TrEMBL record:
It is found in: Cell projection, Cilium. Residues 183-210 form a coiled coil. It comes from Ramphastos sulfuratus. Residues 137-156 have a biased composition (Acidic residues). This is LRC46 protein.
Length: 216
């Protein structure tokens, strides 16, 4: 289906679709970039189905709290600018972040805001479009050289691939598609199981014909 084909791009664009909630899906490890800016989303939720997500844009929504981001261990860039976040708990942010944008939120006016965020995110390179000085990269922390994964991160952050565009019912359609495929797999498994039982029954009848009759 078109929804499943969309996953092949690794990048999903759902901006300006009047989406009010992030639906719950099965695991989608193929997706690394998700654009959900300029919608009506009020809560960060159900993103654990994107375990390999690296780029997430939720700018221009109605989000009032940073939460439910800890499962995103691969997240490198997070854009939450121009939401309604009053207070920020830095412990809710993934430690893997390199770039974070919270401009346009009242939480940026908290006392010690920048110091608090930078202190909680050791690998942060940019906060609210301003560079972070003294950030420790993972390879420096481990005493090694830059890996191919880090090079991929740089490409992802500096020049994300052009995303595919989907309608606002994408999550609903995708969930339905995945459910249908799951049901099809179960149906196929049941058919194979029944076929095997039929084969065993035929084999039993065959052996009964070959065996001598029981003595009286």
């Amino acid at each position: 289906s078109s929804s499943l084909e969309l996953l092949l791009s690794l990048t999903i664009c759902l901006d300006r679709q009047n989406i009010s909630a992030i639906g719950k899906l099965q695991s989608l490890p193929e997706v690394h970039s998700l654009y959900l800016q300029q919608n009506q989303i009020e809560k960060i939720e159900n993103l654990g189905c994107f375990p390999n997500l690296r780029f997430l844009s939720l700018a221009g929504n109605c989000i009032s709290r940073v939460e439910n981001l800890q499962p995103l261990h691969q997240l490198r860039l997070l854009d939450l600018s121009h939401n309604q976040i009053q207070m920020l708990d830095p412990d809710e942010l993934p430690c893997s972040l390199r770039v974070l944008d919270l401009r346009g939120n009242k939480c940026t006016q908290q006392h010690g805001y920048r110091w608090m965020v930078v202190g909680a995110l050791p690998h942060l390179l940019e906060l609210d479009t301003q560079p972070v000085h003294g950030a420790v990269s993972e390879e420096e922390e481990e005493g090694g050289s830059s890996s191919s994964e880090d090079e991929d991160d740089e490409l992802l952050l500096s020049e994300p691939r052009g995303p595919f565009t989907a309608g606002k019912d994408f999550f609903v359609d995708l969930h339905r598609d995945l459910s249908r495929h799951s049901q099809q797999r179960q149906s196929e498994a049941l058919k194979k199981h029944q076929s095997r039982l039929d084969e065993l029954e035929e084999l039993r009848k065959h052996w009964e014909l070959l065996l001598p009759p029981a003595a009286l």
